[in-house]
Amino acid sequence: MQSLKDFRTFAAEILVLMRKILLLFLAAVLCGSTVTFASCAGCDDNAVVVDQPTIARIQNRGTILIGTTGDYRPLTFREADGTYWGFGIDMAGEIAKRLGVGIEFVQTSWPTLSADVQAEPQTFDLAIGGITITDARRETMLMSDGYLHNGKTILCRASEADRYKSLADMDKPEVRVMVNPGGLNEKFANENLKHATIIVHEKNEEIPSLIAEGEADVMITEITEAPYYIQTDTRLAAPLMNAPFTNGEIGVLMRKGQDDLLQLVNDVIRQMKSDGTLRQLQQKYGLI
Q1: How far is CA 37 from CA 20, 21, 25, 41, 253, in A?
Q2: pLDDT in tens, 4-33
Q3: pTM value?
Q4: Which of 77, 177, 178, 260 fits as disulfide partner to 216, beta carbons 3.0 to 4.6 Å?
Q5: Facing residues of 85 across strands?
Q6: 197 bridge partner residues
Q7: CA distance 6 to 9
């Protein structure tokens, strides 16, 4: 009799547990949440955890956290008073508008970008501003569709524009090539310029002026950045801008597991392409 009583008690407990699981599942479905099984400190190994989707979390917060370097005119730049402007900043505004939330910008850097995107606890929802889509990034993170064509090129002094017609013209010991640390510009220089003197300068936004002033001869940059500087500083030239060394696209970067946010960002990019907003931004920042 005792064994039968124990069995009935056990069966009742199982039934209660199953009902709880079913209710959690239904609640998740109704709220648009996803259900995962995961372990956590102080929980049973197979406890049910209801994860709120990224979009719902952002909308509940009322603000989207945008990671950006703020050192890459005209895509993202942070002024001394803390305000941001640029092509990528305007893109962030369109994403926030679609979500119906405000924006808070979070400072990141090229050397720490990937680590910051994947940090625990999460520091921002997505990163934007001159981030090239690469296979390496896609292996560990999510990247949106491209919204701006990009490629490696150079800035040099206007008086020496005829001197540089190829990588070979730069790959000489007497040529001082300046790059910012941790990003694809430094990587490109190290892979393609084996004989040039490579100088790493911490602040990307200072390099064009240093080139103009003779502190270095060439800056490795991109066709999205070079037009701004040759338009604003007559001492500079970008002689190879129409024949970039590489071809790619710039996109929005975010951590894995945020597929709902990725889909929304891609929808915003497609809409901006179709209604002409993207082209208007290209004209605004002199990228056409």
Answers
A1: 14, 11, 11, 14, 27
A2: 445 455 455 554 445 544 444 444 443 443
A3: 0.76
A4: 178
A5: 77
A6: 176
A7: 5
